[in-house]
């Protein structure tokens, strides 16, 4: 992904044929003033962005992801199962020294990091292939969350400029989540870590592991503190999470700060529960406490 993008600043561009929905000139001036990105760079990149029909269609159903609409008892088995636990164990053993080095710096349970990478891209096996520039451009025009995706589009331009990455070649999810940990561009800019010191690349395992750990630390993770526990009986007190399963049965959990830090990674309770359960099972196999 790390390709030196050579930009010819002497090129003159006519904007008459570009979509009036995005004010390219204003965006360019804004990024120049706030992020020191050359106006010509932003104009050139955005003027070559294209609308992707499949992304345009997707824009109207972003709110219906499985982690948002499924009950927890149906969602968890998708990610907490023997295959993922075994693969997490193998990954942990293969990268044990790296995980320990990251732990010493960030204080994040390595099993939690492995669990997140498993849920996001099956530890890097899943490789999203949507053109990121075009995806964000399409979503900034058609999504119900236009402001958010315009914000990410701006961050994408900053990201590619700062790291000398070809803005037309980056692949990601349909919403432009990038790399093994599936970071949005704004999160790459805030939390991305070039752990192996060869240029930030979230498709490389060292950078992916360290970036997830940095994200969790910056969101307030407390080292060796509890995450969540199941209650035998519901109680009316602070930090109690009450959920209904697919049969309408109520289950109660006592949550701690680290649970809500996990939730911040994806924004849903189901995701945080899955990451916790998967990490707990991986830790049990590797005998990590």
At a glance:
Helix content is 53%, strand content 6%.
Helices and strands in order, then pairings?
Layout: H1 24-35, H2 39-47, H3 53-58, H4 66-69, H5 72-79, H6 82-94, H7 96-106, H8 110-121, E1 130-131, H9 132-142, H10 146-162, E2 171-172, H11 185-191, H12 205-218, E3 228-230, E4 240-244, E5 250-255, H13 257-266, H14 269-286
Antiparallel strand pairs: 1-2, 3-5, 4-5
By CATH, the superfamily of the domain at 1-65 and 130-170 comes out as: Bacterial muramidase
How many runs of DSSP E, i.e. beta strands? Answer: 5
Order of helices and strands: HHHHHHHHEHHEHHEEEHH
Strand order of the largest sheet: 3-5-4
Distance between the first and last residues' Cα: 36 Å
Uncertain parts: 1-20
Write the CATH architecture name of the domain at 1-65 and 130-170. Orthogonal Bundle
Radius of gyration, in angstroms, nearest whole number? 21 Å
Count of DSSP H/I helices:
14
Strand content: 5-15%
| CATH class group of the domain at 1-65 and 130-170 | Mainly Alpha
């Amino acid at each position: 992904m790390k390709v030196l993008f050579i930009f010819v600043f002497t090129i003159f561009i006519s904007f008459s044929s570009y979509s009036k929905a995005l004010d390219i000139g204003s965006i360019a001036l804004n990024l120049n003033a706030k992020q020191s990105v050359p106006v010509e760079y932003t104009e050139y990149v955005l003027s070559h962005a294209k609308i992707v029909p499949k992304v345009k269609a997707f824009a109207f159903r972003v709110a219906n992801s499985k982690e948002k609409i499924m009950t927890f008892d149906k969602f968890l088995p998708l990610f907490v199962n023997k295959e993922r636990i075994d693969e997490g164990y193998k990954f942990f053993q293969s990268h044990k020294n790296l995980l320990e080095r990251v732990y010493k710096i960030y204080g994040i349970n390595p099993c939690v990091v492995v669990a997140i990478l498993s849920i996001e891209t099956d530890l890097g096996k899943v490789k999203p292939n949507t053109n990121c520039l075009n995806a964000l451009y399409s979503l900034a025009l058609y999504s119900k969350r236009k402001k958010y995706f315009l914000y990410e589009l701006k961050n994408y331009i900053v990201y590619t400029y700062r790291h000398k990455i070809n803005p037309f070649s980056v692949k990601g999810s349909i919403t432009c989540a990038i790399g093994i940990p599936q970071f949005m561009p704004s999160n790459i800019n805030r939390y991305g870590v070039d752990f192996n010191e060869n240029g930030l690349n979230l498709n490389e395992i060292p950078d992916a592991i360290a970036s997830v750990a940095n994200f969790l630390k910056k969101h307030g993770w407390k080292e060796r503190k509890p995450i969540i526990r199941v209650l035998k009986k519901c109680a009316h007190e602070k930090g109690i999470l009450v959920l209904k399963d697919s049969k309408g049965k109520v289950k109660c959990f006592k949550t701690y700060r680290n649970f809500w830090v996990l939730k911040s990674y994806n924004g849903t309770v189901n995701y945080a529960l899955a990451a916790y359960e998967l990490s707990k099972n991986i830790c049990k196999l590797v005998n990590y406490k």
